[in-house]
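Field guide to reading this record: the first block holds the primary sequence, the second block holds the structure written as discrete tokens, and the final block holds curator observations. Each block starts with its own label. This record concerns mannose-1-phosphate guanylyltransferase, catalogued under organism Microvirga terricola.

BLOCK 1 — SEQUENCE
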Amino acid sequence: MKKITPVILSGGTGTRLWPLSRESYPKQLLPLVAEETLLQQTARRVADPALFNDLVVVANAEHRFVIAEQLRCIGMSARRIALEPMGRNTAPAALIAALFALRDDPESILLLMPADHAISDDEAFHVTLKMGIESACDASFVLFGIEPTAPVTGYGYIHMGKPVGHGVRKVLAFKEKPDLATAERYLASHDYAWNSGIFLLSARALIDEMRCLEPALLHACERAIEAGRNDLDFLRLDAAAFAEARSVSLDHALMERTKNAVVVPARFSWSDIGTWSALWQRGHKNAEGTVVEGNATAHNARDCYLRSDGPLVAALGVHDLIVVATHDAVLVTTKGRDQDVRPLVEMLRQSGHETATQTVRTYRPWGYYQIVHSGERFKVKRITVNPGAKLSLQKHEHRAEHWIVVNGTALVTRDNEETLLKENQSTYLPCGCIHRLENPGPEILILIEVQSGAYLGEDDILRLDDLYERA
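BLOCK 2 — STRUCTURE
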């Protein structure tokens, strides 16, 4: 059987799971349904070398180092990580992956997977994939349909026709999110499946079809690769060329227009984890049907979803509520309205509220930092540095810094001297001092940084040397 090239599409922002998921750190990078993140679970699902080639990832450029680090943490890497300078939905991302794949193998078969879906049975997933291989090799575009378990109005539906092979049916039509009465009719007919958004297809067939259906889009993707540049282990797509690509899903650009679409009814359980209600459905419920996660508690609260990564959330005498708290934001809604979180986030974005897109943690290739407190002429940060990582060699024109090691070991460069600091030791970096922080040890380095000065903006950094080749 021909091996499959797995492609993870990780350009989504997951705004419907705000405030936990945000543009700067979306849901695929979060451990929402297990100890591992959705991205890590997706990568593990296609790790069998007997069935799959090396992994390819198409991702938002802002998340590049987090994605690489999360793959490293599970002992995996990607053959190629292509970086999108801006979001353009799944059709351009699929074309980028196909154009890359053809360089390695003109007969490549791609498995296109969103990075943020939950699938509980990997073995059943592989069995379902194998049912679609022959059709994909014959230039059909294979979708995987999920058997509806309820008249859900938030999913797209596939109208399935007659069988055209073992376990494979012709696609008659796509139906957008229906109203409740229509969804109930679809459910009763047994001829409709939820559209999982997972595709198996020939890279050559995809490019040939898109050359007819979306020639300008294909041309923009070709130019984005040609004018792109290598950056460490990543390929940065050219921003100007990629900006010319039409923002469109693969469903709209290809699947709804082609005559070669088929569907394999899936034999695995699936969820796109698109809403807080979906997490409530999957979660461990108490005797009153309430899911409690993190720093939360409930008393006489029925059928609620309560989650806090920040302050204590305590619910009393309520029902059907969703309450999600982070360190800087709290969402309160009902399970019937959580589909509308996205427009709420857009409203926050338009008003210039940073919580619409940014988390309290700012991720860097070496780890992350979090502002603990700030005021006039001072700022306090908690800095976490991964084992073996180092910050850039840098200096500041307007601020001085104090570093206090809380956990681990820090190798500090200060002008022409190097000092090894251990737990509860500290150092002072005067304004204009050339300095660098490195974690030489096997465990996470945590330190507190106290900044003082007339200007404390993040742009007051002059990098003199940087392992990660940032400007």
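BLOCK 3 — OBSERVATIONS
Residues 361-465 form a domain with the Jelly Rolls fold (CATH 2.60.120.10).
The longest strand covers residues 305-316.
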